[in-house]
Every structure is written in C-alpha cells, then in structure tokens.
Amino acid sequence: MKAVQFGEYGGPEVLRVVDLPDPHPGPGQIRIVVRAAGVNATDCKLRAGLLDFGAGLPQTTGRDVAGVVDEVGEGVTGVAAGDRVFGVSDDGAGAAELALLTYRAPIPPSLGFVDAAALPVALETATRSLDQLGVGAGMSLFVNGAAGGIGSTAVQLALARGARVIGAASAANADYLRLLGAEPVTYGEGMAERVRALAPDGVDVALDVAGSGVLPELIDLAGGAHNVVTLADFDGAKQHKVRFSSGYQGHAFHALAEIGALIAAGRFWLPVERTYPLDRIAEAHRVSEHGRVRGRLALVIG
Prior knowledge:
This protein is an alpha/beta fold. The chain folds into 2 domains: 2-119 and 270-300, Medium-chain alcohol dehydrogenases, catalytic domain (Quinone Oxidoreductase, Chain A, domain 1, Alpha-Beta Complex); 123-244, 3-Layer(aba) Sandwich (Rossmann fold). The chain is built from 10 helices and 15 strands. The strands form 3 sheets. Strands 3, 5, 6, 7, 14 and 15 form a 6-stranded mixed β-sheet that branches. A 6-stranded parallel β-sheet has the order 10-9-8-11-12-13, with helices on both faces. α10 (281-290) links the parallel β14 and β15 (296-300). α3 (120-133) crosses α4 and α3 packs across α9 (254-264). The protein is globular, with a radius of gyration of 19 Å.
C-alpha cells in the first residue's frame, strides 16, 4: 500500500510517500480502506520531533481517518465489511491507503468521508479537556484559541452541555465564533480586560488551546490554576501548576458515537477548510503549522 513516512525529524519536506506492506487486523481491530485522513497539530509535532510517543524512526503519520471496513479482526462485533466508519488510526498510520482502527464509530449518515476524517482527534481532545474541567450546565468557559479544530469543537460541545462560552481568536474569526455560538474576543494585549467586559466576575473555567503564553491571565480569569487546562503550553503548565492535558484516554472516545445526534440536531459543525491529495501532505503540514486554519485540513485518498 501507499503510505506517508518520515525517516528523520524535521520540516514538512521530510515526509515521503512510500510502499509499505498491507496491514491486517489483530484481535479487536478492523482494517479500513482509507478515503480521507485529517491533518492535526499532533502529526506535525511528531514529525518535527517535538513529541515522542516512542515509535522511533522511520515513522508513519496520520491519526484521524475515515473509510470503508474491508477486514475485521478476532472478537470484533457490531461492524462488518462495507460499513462506513471513522476513528483514530492505531500506531498513527492513517495517511495511507489502508489503516487499522481500534477506536472507531459509524460515520453519521449526513457526513461524507472528508468531514468525518476531521473529527476524531478533535472530538477526543475537546471531550477529555471539558471532562477534566467539569464543564456542565450553567457554567462559564473561556477558550483561548477557539477558531481552530479543537477550539471549535470544544466551543460547541461546551454549549451542548449548557455552558456559556467566551472564545478568543483573531478579529477575522469573530463572526465565525458567533456562528458557533460563542461570544468572541480578540487575542493580544488587553485580552483579559475584554473578557471581563463580557464577564465582570471572570469565568468558572478556562481552556488554553493556543499556547500563547497567557496562562497567568487565564488563572486570574478562572479564579485559580485548578480551573485551567492547557493543551499546548507544557512549560507554562509546569511553571504555573496548571494541568497539561495530553494523550488519549479511552473514556473520551465515547464522543465518536455520540456526535451524530448533535450533528443531526444542527448543533455541531466542524468545517474542513482545505483538502489535499496524499502526495501533497507536506503542503498540508506546512499550512497546518503556519496557516491560521479555521476548522480542519484533510487528505483525500483513493
């Protein structure tokens, strides 16, 4: 099969389309013919050597995938060849013609493969973060970095839980955040004051998706470090005793199966801003790192 691999850490130029042996599912796994794969920040950080999940080199890439089941492993029930599914590729090998999945769900009927491939990691990450913050009805949440894939997802999931959401993004994304249901404020100097203009007493909890060095302001807005979670500022989290949320936790994958109801009710939407063929994955990584993407990017395969 064709798959993307890198043999050294570095910029997007280290990515190569290569021929690899076809994988086959083990117990609990399924194999899909990949129709689309998402591109997310974790993929880029692993490629650059900024994260290490112990895979070593050479290494494949791609976690978000959607496609059609063509092989089912031992012990797997409730899914059969021909079913449309989406999920997280085992071993981070989703940018390929074939992928193995353990965590997956049926694609909601209203979604195509590209839109489905944009969801899994964003859903898991946003759900895990909201669970850690205890976001629920009647609470107020501030999201720093609300217009990207994870931020957009967190905004809508928090609103579905009955929370009030204030989101920070660039001025160009203010209308987009309003469309999602958030109250927008702009990044930059004075951001905390702009939040307090909307919420004079601050907010109950805050989620940092952007990692832009604003944890002290978030701690002040949320009334303490225990009310803040960051997804992007590891050093700041250690310095300010804020929770750094990282790594998949199986319980949060329940969001894959539950998102269909929100989509059908018109309460969830995650746009895919651009798509690329597999052989242009380097360009997709470059845009992901530097392009201020609204929503997600995806690869179209096959």
